[in-house]
Write a structure and sequence with these properties.
heterodimer, A: Histone, subunit A, about 10% strand, B: alpha/beta, eleven-stranded mixed beta sheet, globular
Chain lengths: ~130, ~500
């Protein structure tokens, strides 16, 4: 049993969290020990690759520690049985309206391309994507 | 010009309309104040001296020609730097958009220009609106005008601080999980988070698309309500924009609260650790009761899960929205040996630590094998939070909580622990997840002289009742006659 890091008085269990009445933040929480991480370093590096981000060794280690604490806190959701509850993807009910199909002027090409890091012949210039054998 | 810099938007418009002062004179006065105080406060990332004077002079010409003036004619306004402004740099306080000059105006910026408002410049924020202290700006930390060592709140910290410091009577911010309300509470001003769909998001750089709303900020409830009237309304360029008439928010400020039922989340209020916040809210509730409002106890049993739900949904949406920043079409490019390396180099160099953390968390929550356990589960719990409000609104017209668990915390106090920073949003997140309109208005000062904010939440599209009730709070406990001592 440990003390909540936020209200300092509520005792919480060894899993690192307990859904309780935490005066101050509504939910008790202690920083989890890293012995049983919610996310491994390999997973962190895999996710970084998916997100097209690079992390130095030190950044990856710190990211793991921080994501672990956040995901540990989020385990608090496990107290709820929500299998039968429909998800709310949009908070306010709305239809997908259709607008009249009328041609309009689009943005000015030169003005738009002026914001590109590199442009060429009226288009975006990008690094070579396909190698062509000659 | 009488009352500068604390006169209201209504007084400025009146003075400009009657010709007792020109819009150019007003603008010059605010520009010099902004230029003088910005080195201390870092509210503005860009001060558009030339553009502001041109807009002001247009108002003066209109007046001279006897043309009708808009509701904000000649009124200076500060605009958060994640709202696109044609020809004026829009950075989102990120290195990745450092030099971006939008080729178009956001819907709300168009509406401001049409109303005669004068855009003074673009305000500082947490990078891509991700943060609760404005310390995630890639450029500078904003300081709270009430105490310079305190955070102004975030992410619309620059907008809140500029209004509180009398650099502009009005400001626009954006609110995804509390980003106009929390800084308003910390800086002692009023801010409205409209119902999702009430204000067009066209030209607002996307963070979490199912939550983002543009919100008005001002020192008084009346000014914030007037600004909401100007920016609200249907816009076909935002598919989530509601096709509903705009309310009479300003007129609603004069409606009495007699007989209105104010829901009090009793377990939350009794459990509040900060005695000043608790006392301030209790005093405001007492004042509302005096005015004839009826206090009823309500419960939001699932709201305590809002931090988990929000930081799964918002980061998931952000990870997808921010995929567009790849170094190809705008902003920064850091070349690599191939296209993939160009993407990763650009994003590693261009995004700050909090943005990277949220992209990581969101990508993880959406990735194969974790979608059901995290993202989908969060969306289901979101339904429970929405239902809590449905049940509460059977018993009351507005739900009242503090805006924040404490008054403004110190700069640097929460930067080492991201989760602790997230937990500071606990009261503003539940209405955001439910798409509901909410307002934060000052309910007094703490013993240390820091503003305390009171939050009211209403059913969808019932912004008018928020204006009525918060006007009553302002009349009884507001801070209109008090200004940050360090600056006056």
């Amino acid at each position: 049993m440990r003390r909540c890091d936020l209200c300092l008085r509520k005792r919480v269990n060894s899993r690192g969290y307990e859904v309780g009445e935490c005066p101050g933040a509504w939910i008790c929480y202690v920083r989890r020990p890293m012995a049983d991480p919610k996310i491994t370093l390999e997973q962190v590096l895999h996710v970084a690759k998916l997100a097209r981000l690079t992390l130095s060794d030190e950044e990856a280690r710190q990211m793991q520690e921080q994501l672990d604490a956040i995901l540990g806190y989020m385990e608090g959701l496990d107290e709820l049985d929500v299998f039968e509850v429909p998800p709310t993807f949009h908070s306010i009910a709305m239809d997908a309206p259709l607008r009249p199909d009328v041609p309009e002027r689009c943005s000015d090409r030169a003005e738009t391309l002026a914001q590109a890091p590199a442009s060429e012949a009226g288009g975006y210039a990008v690094p070579l994507v396909l190698e062509v054998d000659s | 010009m009488s009352g500068f810099p604390w006169q209201s938007a209504f007084e400025i418009r009146e003075q400009v309309a009657t010709g007792s002062v020109s819009a150019v004179e007003v603008t010059r006065a605010y520009l010099s104040r902004a230029e003088a105080l910005n080195p201390t406060l870092s509210c503005f990332l860009t001060i558009d001296h030339e553009g502001a004077l041109a807009a002001a002079s247009q108002v003066d010409h209109k007046r001279a020609a006897g043309e009708a003036l808009g509701p904000l004619a000649g009124v200076p306004i500060a605009v958060k730097d994640n709202l696109c402004t044609r020809g004026v740099r829009t950075t989102c306080a990120s290195k990745i958009l450092g030099g971006y000059i939008p080729p178009y105006d956001a819907h709300v910026v168009e509406a401001l220009r049409a109303s005669g408002a004068v855009l003074l410049g673009k305000t500082n924020l947490d990078e891509f609106a991700m943060g609760s202290s404005n310390e995630n700006s890639a450029f500078a930390n904003v300081h709270n005008p009430w105490a310079l060592d305190r955070a102004p709140g975030g992410s619309s910290g620059g907008s809140a601080a500029s209004t509180a410091a009398g650099l502009a009577p009005l400001a626009l911010g954006s609110d995804t999980g509390g980003s106009v309300r929390q800084p308003a509470a910390f800086c002692g001003i009023t801010a409205i988070k409209p119902t999702y769909g009430r204000v067009s998001r066209y030209g607002l750089v996307a963070f979490a698309s199912s939550l983002d709303q543009v919100g008005p900020m001002a020192r008084s409830v009346r000014e914030a309500s007037q600004l909401l009237e100007v920016v609200a309304g249907h816009d076909r360029r935002d598919a989530t924009s509601a096709e509903r008439d705009t309310g009479n928010y300003l007129a609603a400020c004069d409606r009495r609260v007699k007989g209105l039922r104010v829901g009090v989340v009793r377990d939350l209020l009794d459990g509040l650790q900060d005695a000043d916040v608790r006392a301030s809210i209790e005093t405001a509730l007492g004042a509302l009761e005096q005015e004839g409002a009826v206090l009823v106890d309500v419960a939001l049993p699932h709201a305590k899960h809002a931090v988990s739900v929000y930081y799964l949904i918002a980061t998931a949406e952000a990870s997808s929205n921010l995929a567009r920043f790849d170094g190809i079409r705008y902003g920064l490019r850091v070349p690599g040996k191939d296209l993939t390396e160009t993407y990763t180099n650009t994003r590693a160099e261009g995004f700050g630590p909090e943005v990277r953390r949220r992209i990581m968390l969101g990508t993880y929550a959406l990735s194969a094998g974790y979608y059901d356990a995290f993202y989908l589960k969060a969306q289901r719990v979101r339904t429970l939070i929405r239902r809590d409000y449905d049940a509460a609104f059977e018993r009351c017209d507005v739900v009242c909580t503090p805006t924040t668990p404490t008054p403004a915390f110190a700069l640097g106090e929460k930067t080492s622990d991201p989760l602790e920073m997230y937990l500071a949003d606990i009261f503003t997140l539940p209405p955001s997840l439910a798409g509901l309109p909410a307002i934060s208005t000052p309910s007094g000062l703490s013993a240390e002289g820091l503003p305390v904010g009171l939050q009211l939440v209403a059913p969808p599209f019932e912004e008018e009742v928020l204006c009525s009730v918060s006007q009553a709070v302002e009349d009884q406990c507001g801070l209109l006659d008090q200004h940050p001592a360090a600056l006056s």
